[in-house]
Specification:
The complex is a heterodimer of chains A (196) and B (151). Chain A is of the alpha+beta class and 196 residues long. Chain A folds into two domains: 80 residues, no CATH class; 107 residues, 60s Ribosomal Protein L30, Chain: A (2-Layer Sandwich), CATH 3.30.1330.60. Helix content of chain A is 32%, strand content 26%. In chain A, strands 6-9-7-8 form a four-stranded mixed beta sheet. Chain A has a three-stranded antiparallel beta sheet with strand order 1-4-5, with no helix packed on it. In chain A, a hairpin with a 2-residue loop joins β2 and β3. The longest helix of chain A is centred in the last third of the chain and has 21 residues. Chain A is elongated and about 75 Å long. By secondary structure, chain B is of the alpha+beta class. Chain B has one domain. In chain B, strands 1, 2, 3, 4, 5, 6, 7, 8, 9, 10, 11 and 12 form a twelve-stranded mixed beta sheet that branches. The chains are: A alpha+beta (196), B alpha+beta (151). At the A-B interface, β1, β2 and α3 of A face β1, β6, β7, β9 and β11 of B.
């Protein structure tokens, strides 16, 4: 009998407290579909936020889910979002069978990698080489590293800072298209490049 | 000549130690400053360094910004992206990442101000492996884009 008025009084007291913290899911910036998910844990309570502009706030040391006007979210986080760097980009280039030479299509696509690097005020480039499953493990390990090294050499020749480039080879251990052993597969003969 | 030579060797040894020492004191390199405006600083141990585009960021660094218009943006080695608003303090308390399998964990402590995040490979491989701590709560992050404000 006494509980309801007490609860109302407690809620009024809480909403009367100033907002201490605000957490909000934003539309995916990286183009991935759907929305992300964050879980706000405070003591034993957990509030799951999994829709764009789903929000929670803390008042009086307690957090609860709240409706939030997207406009308010944009105002609160305007400067933080504006300071966001250009997001990392992922690119693939493909190679001729058994060599560290790019296919004609990827020779043309290489230019896009270079252009992406150059639009960033500061950059890091990761190049991971891969092979298909034709040949033994050590041959492919070396070939994958040669492919990554060839890309580093090209980028360096084109004016990219060699200290900003890291390379590695994964041989035939990390296939893009799963195949059996000793299978030539053009899509597995590749480098994966991350520019950030 | 011999005495000079050994001094040179000692000098070289000291330089090697001096070069290695900051890496030990400041932990692992985990990211790079990509944007910086206004009063933007990286606090590393006792040093408060102006944040400059291209500078490395290490585990346990603290990002600090001042007056309105001051911001810092950075990328981590797992491709997570942080950007702060003004009057912000964020400690990069913990960061572990293995680029061969994308496994890792990350803890950032937002003491005040605003932080916008686009999560990267750590949360992609292990949803929840990124945690954001605030004065009253801990956020478990499964991905990807969100923001936190501590008033």
């Amino acid at each position: 009998m006494y509980r309801l008025p007490l609860l109302v009084a407690a809620l009024l007291a809480l909403t009367g407290c100033p907002r201490q913290e605000l957490y909000v899911v934003l539309p995916n910036a990286d183009g991935r579909p759907g929305a992300g998910q964050i879980t706000v844990m405070e003591g034993t309570t957990a509030t799951v936020l999994n829709q764009p502009f789903a929000a929670a706030e803390a008042r009086g040391g307690q957090s609860t889910g709240v409706p939030l006007d997207p406009t308010e979210a944009r105002i609160v986080f305007n400067q933080a979002v504006a300071a966001r760097p250009i997001l990392p980009a992922h690119l693939r280039l493909y190679f001729v069978l058994g060599s560290d030479q790019l296919t004609p299509e990827s020779t043309a696509a290489y230019r896009a990698v270079f252009d992406d690097i150059k639009r960033r005020p500061a950059y890091e480039v990761e190049v991971i080489g891969h092979t298909d499953t034709l040949g033994d493990v050590s041959y492919n390990q070396q070939l994958s590293l040669n492919r990554a090294a060839m890309i580093r050499a090209s980028l360096t020749r084109d004016g990219v800072d060699p200290n900003a480039i890291s390379i590695a080879g994964r041989g035939k251990l990390d296939l893009l298209v799963p195949t059996g052993d000793q299978v030539p597969e053009p899509q597995n003969r590749r480098v994966e490049i991350t520019v950030r | 000549m011999r005495g000079f030579g050994s001094t040179g060797l000692l000098g070289l040894a000291l330089i090697v130690i001096a070069a290695a020492a900051p890496a030990l004191a400041q932990g692992q390199r985990i990211g790079q400053i990509k944007t910086a405006t206004g009063q933007a600083f990286v606090v590393r141990g006792d040093a408060r360094l102006p944040a400059k585009i291209g500078d490395p960021v290490y585990e346990r660094d603290v990002l600090e910004t001042g007056a309105p218009g001051s911001t810092i943006g950075l990328t981590f080695t797992d491709n997570t992206v942080f950007s702060t608003g003004p009057e912000t303090q964020v400690a990069l308390s913990q960061f572990r990442f293995d680029s061969s399998n994308f496994k890792g964990e990350m803890l950032a402590d937002v003491k005040k101000g605003s932080l916008s995040i686009v999560s990267g490979d750590i949360t992609r491989a292990t949803p929840g492996a990124m945690k954001i701590k605030t004065p009253t709560a801990i956020l478990g992050v499964s991905g990807t884009t969100f923001a936190v404000k501590v008033y």
